[in-house]
Design a protein that fits this description.
This protein is α+β, with helices and mostly antiparallel strands. It is built from seven helices and seven strands, in the order ααβββββββααααα. Helix 6 (about 225-245) runs antiparallel to helix 7 (about 250-265).
Length: about 270
């Protein structure tokens, strides 16, 4: 069973014994849901019993270096969110693979076989791309969630049932009509002029008492319109105009304008 697990990591010329040793160490460091995807081994031109290696899992990248004749092992471990990019350069004897983190120095392992370096580069690029897509989706989901209401529709309906509706009491007084809705001054005078008018004494002002004049018996012949009757008619118009102003049926400017117009007939 152990050999079957190692076989998929030695298909590109990796040393089986070294892979077994690295695989066993990394298995002890895996987190729940984490699995090893690929192991790339250094292959120097000379004999290299303890090569450096790069291991890629679905969550992290492990850079391994054997020290003290294999009695100690140094690991540089980076989760994918801490990796900025991956680069490799093909040389005469293998490739130089460089891991570029967001913070800290770049980590380089040389003499990686070209086939393993290309496959390693593709796996790391895919992992970084998937991480970026996950960040984009999470950001979009966050925007959608923030735009949603805090409570759902059924809860809102229950709140509406519990809170009694507020009834606003309307004022009981009637609004006075605006000046635009009042009858025009010309139409008012036209209606008043249609009614029979009785001659009245000469206008002597609004504040002075008006003397009463004795009525004369009607004559058979129609007398000509005298100056006194014309004055009485003007006085009547002024009185009616004043009455309209006192009742606030016309504005002060309309009152003054019409008053000046009537007085100009004198």
């Amino acid at each position: 069973m152990e050999n079957y697990q190692i076989d998929k990591y030695v298909q590109d010329g990796q040393d089986t014994k070294v892979v077994e040793k690295i695989h066993g160490k990394i298995l002890d460091m895996l987190t729940p849901g984490e699995s090893i995807n690929y192991i790339a081994l250094q292959k120097k031109p000379a004999v290299n019993l303890l090569p450096d290696s790069i291991t890629v899992s679905n969550k992290r990248i492990f850079l391994c270096e054997f020290t003290k004749l294999g009695l100690a092992t140094n690991f540089e471990i980076f989760p994918w969110k801490d990796i900025k990019d991956i680069a490799f350069k093909e040389e005469i004897f293998g490739s130089k693979v460089t891991v570029i983190p967001f913070t800290g120095e770049n980590l380089t392992i040389d003499y990686i076989p070209k086939t393993q370096a290309r496959k390693l580069y593709q796996l790391i690029k895919d992992a970084l791309s998937n991480l970026q897509n996950q960040k984009t989706e999470a950001k979009e989901n966050k925007v959608v969630i923030e735009n949603k209401p805090v409570f759902n529709a059924p809860a809102a309906k229950e709140i509406e049932k519990e809170v009694p509706p507020i009834i606003e009491e309307k004022p009981k007084f009637e609004e006075r009509p605006r000046f635009e809705e009042r009858p025009s001054l010309n139409s008012t005078f036209a209606q008043q002029n249609q009614q029979p008018q009785n001659p009245k004494p000469e206008f002597q002002g609004f504040d002075t008492p008006r003397p009463t004049t004795p009525t004369t018996p009607p004559t058979t012949s129609l007398p000509e319109v005298s100056k006194t009757e014309e004055d009485d008619e003007i006085t009547l118009k002024l009185k009616k105009l004043k009455n309209l102003y006192d009742k606030q049926l016309i504005t002060q400017s309309e009152y003054e304008t019409k008053k000046a117009e009537i007085l100009s007939q004198l």
